[in-house]
Design goal:
- The protein has eleven helices and 20 strands.
- The protein is α/β, with parallel strands linked by helices.
- A hairpin with a 4-residue loop joins strand 7 and strand 8.
- The chain is globular and about 75 Å long.
- The structure holds adenosine-5'-diphosphate (ADP), aspartic acid and magnesium ion.
- Magnesium ion (MG) binds at residues 9, 151, 154, 209.
C-alpha cells in the first residue's frame, strides 16, 4: 500500500464531467489499496477570469485582496471534487491551504512556503478519508491568505508529498507527460519517458509550463518522485528522476519557447564601475526578477545594458530604471514586448561540442535573427522576434533529431 498525492490541473477539473472522471480515478486508486491525497487547481481558466473581473472593477487593487479573490477558484474545485468523491462512495474532506497547514511568507501573489503543518490532512488520512486540498494557496505568518504564484498548485502538491512522506506525487494534466517541445507548438514532439531534475528545471524556467519551476526545485530538494501524466487517457507519463550516471544522456532532450518576457534597454550609460550595481539594486528593491542580461562592448566609454523581465514586471522595471537614470547618467530607457525566447536543453550538451554552432546555423538558415544569447551548462537560449518563435522551435526540433518517426 502506497501513499499517493494526486494533483489535478485546471483542464482536468474543467467541467462537471471532468470532476466526476477525477473522482472515479481516485476511487479506483483507493480500491487498489492506496491512500490518496488530492490537490486541485481552479476549474479551467477560472483564475484568469477572476483576474479579468478584478481589472474590470478597478485598475488598482491591493495584492492582499487579489489573493483573497484568486483563492476562491481552488475552493470551488475542492468542494466539488469532494462531493463527487462521496457520490462514488469515497469518504473525503476538503481543506483550504490554510486548513492544510501551508504556512507562507507575507509576499502576496508569489508567497513562498515557510513551513508545512498538515496535521488535519494526516488526521483525515488516519480516519480513512481522502483529503482534498485546494492548491495554489496558503496562510501567511501574518494570518493573511496568500497565493503561491501562477501554476502554484504544483508546489502545493509537491510540498504536501514531501511533508507527508508520500511515495509519489502524480501531476495530472491535459497532455500525456513532458514532451520534447510543447506539443501545441510542435505537433511532432515526442513524450519523454523520463527526464532528469536538472533538465526539467531548465524546461520549467524557459517556458515549458507543464510543471511550475518551484515545484521541481522543491521535489529535488526533498527527494519527491514526480510523475507527470494525463487525466484524459490515464496512461503512464513522464518520471522526473535524478540523473543516472550509468546512462548515456541525450545531447538535446527538449526545445522550449517563451513569449512571456519583455526586453528593457538602458542606453548611453557611462562604462564605469558601479553603474550596473546601481541599476540592478534598484530593480531588486522593486521586486523585479531579471532573467537574461547583456551589456554591449563600450564605444567611447559609453555602453548599453539590455535585460529581460516578465511582461507583468515590465512597468515596475521601467520605473526603476527611470529612477536611476539621472544618477548613472543614462541617455534613454526603453522596452520591447515583441520578443520571445527559444531554448535548447540537454544534459549531454556538457560533453558534446558543436551544439551551439548547430543552433545558430539552424536559426540563420531560416533567416531568424538572434538578439540576445544566454547559456548554462545544459541550456542555450536565444532571444528572437516574437513572431519567429514557433517557427524557430520547429526548425530546432528537427535539426536536433527530436521529430517523431
Ligand atoms: P495544468 O492546468 O494541468 O497545470 P498547464 O497548462 O499548467 O496545465 O500545463 C500543461 C500544458 O503545458 C500543456 O497543455 C502544454 O501545452 C504545455 N507545455 C509546454 N511545454 C511542454 C512540454 N515540453 N511538454 C508538455 N507540455 C508542455
Ligand atoms: N489556478 C492557479 C493558476 O491558474 C494555480 C494552478 O493552476 O496551478 O495559476
Ligand atoms: Mg500548471
Amino acid at each position: 500500500m502506497a501513499l499517493l498525492v494526486q494533483k489535478f490541473g485546471g483542464t482536468s477539473v474543467g467541467s462537471a464531467e471532468r470532476i466526476r472522471a477525477v473522482a472515479d480515478h481516485v476511487a479506483k486508486t483507493r480500491a487498489a489499496g492506496h491512500d490518496v491525497v488530492v490537490v486541485v487547481s481552479a476549474m479551467g481558466q477560472f483564475t484568469d477570469d477572476l483576474i479579468r473581473l478584478a481589472e474590470e472593477v478597478t485598475a488598482t487593487h491591493t495584492a492582499r485582496e487579489m489573493d483573497m479573490l484568486l483563492t476562491a477558484g481552488e475552493r470551488i474545485s475542492m468542494a466539488l471534487v469532494s462531493m463527487a468523491l462521496s457520490a462514488v462512495g469515497v469518504e473525503s474532506a476538503s481543506f483550504t491551504g490554510s486548513q492544510a497547514g501551508i504556512i507562507t511568507d507575507t509576499t502576496h501573489r508569489r508567497a513562498k512556503i515557510l513551513e508545512m503543518r498538515p496535521d488535519r490532512v494526516r488526521e483525515a488520512l488516519a480516519d480513512g478519508l481522502v483529503p482534498v486540498v485546494a492548491g495554489f494557496q496558503g496562510v501567511s505568518t501574518e494570518r493573511d491568505i496568500t497565493t503561491l504564484g501562477r501554476g502554484g498548485s504544483d508546489v502545493t502538491a509537491v510540498a504536501l508529498a514531501a511533508a507527508l512522506g508520500a511515495d509519489v506525487c502524480e501531476i495530472y494534466t491535459d497532455v500525456t507527460g513532458v514532451f520534447s517541445a510543447d506539443p501545441r507548438v510542435v505537433p511532432s514532439a515526442q513524450r519523454l519517458n523520463r527526464i532528469s531534475f536538472d533538465e526539467m528545471m531548465e524546461i520549467a524556467a524557459t517556458g515549458g509550463r507543464v510543471l511550475m519551476l518551484r515545484s521541481v526545485e522543491f521535489a529535488r530538494r526533498h527527494h519527491v518522485d514526480l510523475h507527470v501524466r494525463s487525466s484524459f487517457t490515464w496512461e503512464p507519463g513522464t518520471w522526473i528522476v535524478e540523473e543516472d550516471p550509468t546512462m548515456e544522456e541525450a545531447i538535446v532532450s527538449a526545445i522550449t519557447d517563451d513569449t512571456s518576457e519583455s526586453k528593457v534597454t538602458v542606453s548611453g550609460v557611462p562604462d564605469r564601475p558601479g553603474v550596473a550595481a546601481a541599476l540592478f539594486r534598484e530593480l531588486a528593491d522593486a521586486g523585479v526578477n531579471v532573467d537574461m542580461i547583456v551589456q554591449n562592448t563600450s564605444a567611447h566609454a559609453v555602453t548599453d545594458i539590455t535585460f529581460t523581465v516578465a511582461k507583468t514586471d515590465r512597468e515596475a522595471a521601467l520605473e526603476a530604471c527611470r529612477r536611476v537614470q539621472p544618477r548613472v547618467g543614462a541617455e534613454t530607457v526603453s522596452s520591447d514586448d515583441d520578443i520571445g525566447r527559444v531554448s535548447i536543453i540537454g544534459a549531454g550538451m556538457k560533453s558534446s561540442p558543436g551544439v551551439t554552432a548547430l543552433m545558430f546555423e539552424t536559426l540563420s538558415a531560416h533567416d531568424i535573427n538572434i538578439e540576445m544569447i544566454s547559456t548554462s551548462s545544459i541550456r542555450i537560449s536565444c532571444v528572437v522576434r516574437a513572431n519567429k518563435v514557433a517557427e524557430a522551435v520547429g526548425h530546432l526540433h528537427r535539426a536536433f533529431g527530436l521529430d517523431g518517426p
